[in-house]
Amino acid sequence: MIEQTFQQTFGSPPEVVVRAPGRVNLIGEHTDYNDGFVLPAAIDRTITYAGRRRAERRVRVYSDDFQATVEFDLDDIQKDSKNTWSNFLRGVSKFLEADGHRLTGADIAFGGDVPREAGLSSSAAVEVGAAAFWNKLLGMGLDPVYVVKLSRRTENEFVGVPCGIMDQFISALGRRDHALFLDCRDLTYRHVPLRADVKIVVCNSGVKRALAQSEYEVRLKQCREAVAQIAATGRAVKSLREVRLSDLEAARGALDKLLWRRARHVVSENERVLEAVRVLESGDLQRFGELMNASHASLRDDYEVSSKELDTLVDLARRQPGVLGARMTGAGFGGCTVNLVRAAAAENFAQAVAEGYEKALGLKGEVYVCKASDGALVSA
Length: 380
Ligand code: GLA
Known about the structure:
- By secondary structure, the protein is of the alpha+beta class.
- The protein contains 11 helices and 11 strands.
- The longest helix has 26 residues, at 257-282.
- The chain starts with a helix and ends in a 10-residue tail after the last strand.
């Protein structure tokens, strides 16, 4: 309990406690930075912040994960190259101040159970949690979408990771028992109910996403280049969001072969998300599962961001009774798969996949049967 950790570290109870969840993406992968569509859910694994005000304009922050404390001055917030875990709070605090919000000094402890570097967006949870913490401590009444943008800006400009907006959005605005359908171009969204008779099961390959950042940047550039090559054929497009599969077919000769495949993933994935939302709303879970499977194939073959471990987990999953669909989730190159499984079969599924994975690759994975949960600011 982070409240107790706070008490032990700082000698008295915290004034406020806030939680921000990790996420799993059901479908819509590598579409957010192409102005496309995504359908993530917040999960019941969270980062919790506990804290209280102090008189000077200094922040003392204790990380439960790293069992370390650092201190920084609100009037001179610098990046910390040693205690990199503190950069999320530093960046969020710096950008809040830069936007004209006057913070006060604080003692803070944070930690949680979102596994790190597993593709479940622990960093988004740490960022959104930091912003939600200040919001509550100081009664700031921040607009949730402002918090989302500030958190992403922290990741892009302060931490230095060029992610899209999905992870921060769902950590702030997820809703219990719902997925969130988000249009990343104009940030309109709606919550789509998930049925109680199916479970979201996450399989963690245990492989850290080593290549993820450099390859992510390569994919980002390839998508921009594909847009430029399509635009050069005379079609006025600003992002792959505006491209249909038929346009892509027509532009086949004009596009570099590799870029064409990258673009086909993004364009087809957007279409899959739109259909997935429709069938989820109409209750056709069978079709939803097929779309998840097709998404995996596209990420593996066209976008080339899967891995042997992820493919193994997906293959094992598809052989289990009660499974509706299985795919890699998040940036790829390690991390997790997401599976939609009939509730009655979920526990057996979890056990069978974990055992099969160890047998096949000699690796210990972890399996989490998740509950779609509230975001940090959903009722704010
Ligand atoms: C990471 C990024 C997201 C998104 C996914 C891929 O999680 O942080 O913005 O691009 O990869 O869908």
